[in-house]
Amino acid sequence: GLGWQTDDPSLVWHNDTTDDRDIPDYSLLKDKRVETYVEAKNLASNIIDHLPQLARYCINNGKEFGIITNGNDWLLIKTFEKDTKPKDRIIWQISIEKDSVLTIKNRLLNLSREQIGNLPELIEKEKQIQKFWNEYVSNESKLVDKLSIEIATEFISKHSDEDYDQETITNFFKSNLWTFLTERSIVDNNEPNNNT
What we know:
By secondary structure, the chain is an alpha+beta fold. 42% of the residues lie in helices and 17% in strands. The protein contains five helices and six strands. The chain has a six-stranded mixed sheet, sandwiched between helices. Helix 4 packs across helix 5.
């Protein structure tokens, strides 16, 4: 789990009134101080509609981040940034129904009792990783070159008792990767659009 035992008042307070008379659904505590607030809405709720409420609770009480969920959708928000609206400050949003298990796991682990105090650093690291990935995949030649070398190296290591030319094998995989990407792109573009 995430380490927030909801029946342990040293970790989680339910509907505790703040100094400003706000009543967040849950207050998450670490080292006897409130780390952030969680607003829990019913499953039919659009959590975006409740962002101003969560932002107000967090801003009024000096919390940098807030969490809102309806059980399926989860959202992490930075509570204040100059000249922005709450929707503009969404750091991430996930859907248990739609997102990959790996994405859900990675995002929710950032909200664990162990990690929640490191949110600024974790968010910055995720931005750096995403930027690197975007730059990497925006250059298909670079991606194909890198993958073909890695695949060729693995192939040669598995067939070390035979004599294979690294360049020939690399070019073979490079050609096949380009074919794979091209055919994949054609298939993706020919799929019917379900939005119409």
